[in-house]
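User: quick one - fold this with adenosine-5'-diphosphate bound?
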Amino acid sequence: SIMPATLAAVSNGAKRGVLFKGGVHLEHLGSLKAIAFDKTGTLTSGKPVVTDFIVRDGEDVNSSLALLASIESQSNHPLAIAIVKHAEEHGIVNRDNPQIEDVPGYGIRAFTDTGEVLVGNPRFVGKELIDDFHEGIVQKLSDEGKTVVFMKDSNGILAAIALKDTLRPEAVQAIKDLKNLGIQSIMLTGDNDKTAKAIAKEAGLDKFVAECLPEKKVEELKRLKTEYGEVGMVGDGINDAPALATATSGIAMGEGTDVALETADVVLMQNDLTRISYAVKVSRKMQRIVK
Ligand code: ADP
Ligand code: MG
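Assistant: Sure. Structure tokens for the protein plus adenosine-5'-diphosphate:
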């Protein structure tokens, strides 16, 4: 049977934006030594905006953007939504709906009238091609914390598009609060090393793991558990669900995908990251009452 004190804490939590899916989850939070955070949609708003668009010499900017948007219009990835919006704002009307294949953690493979086109990160289109594309520009964009997505056709890299996501306003405070409770925060992201480093620095995080594919997030969680013992995971996406299930406490953002919300033990209903330290404090207090 559930203790009256637990019941009160769960009900207070709900009033203050934290949904505990049971008393046992409330208990776990107090023992966390480290918390892993997904980047996009968790530490950041997940609503990136396009900042730069660069095409291969001799290519038309508008038709390249139109091709990119027609491919991304078939995906519901946050980057895809931002790219389609950018194209619309530039008066580009989508006419084509090429057949596509989603490649999670990498991007999209499209089958267009003129052949296969890849849209995604350097690992997907081929890292060796990136260095030669408008010399050094990709490095510069990544150092600014921007995510760069590439489009490749049979002639090589056709275009690069940079997007900037913003940290959630309370992210820095939330990480600081956890540090004061003796909890180490680590960022896990599918994004590349340079972009990840810039965002981690902005958030005040000492540790991050970049190029973390969905299955690697689970591996990383297991590794962190060996290192720290009890480890939490905060995420929003479908690809975070396995890691949320592996963690001591799986924490989902309220605006996350259904799968993340279902898998998690705790939900941050208002997407407010400072609610994590609040929940940890409540849990530690509970442990003192119960014992
Ligand atoms: P995160 O861990 O940051 O939430 P994801 O695992 O969703 O990232 O994606 C990892 C990377 O794969 C992205 O940073 C991007 O480079 C690439 N990617 C995934 N889906 C798409 C897409 N629809 N369009 C372009 N790039 C994509
Ligand atoms: Mg995410």
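One thing worth noting: The pocket of adenosine-5'-diphosphate (ligand 1) is lined by residues 38-40, 72, 75, 77, 79-80, 105-108, 119-121, 147, 149, 189-191, 237, 239 (CB under 6 Å).
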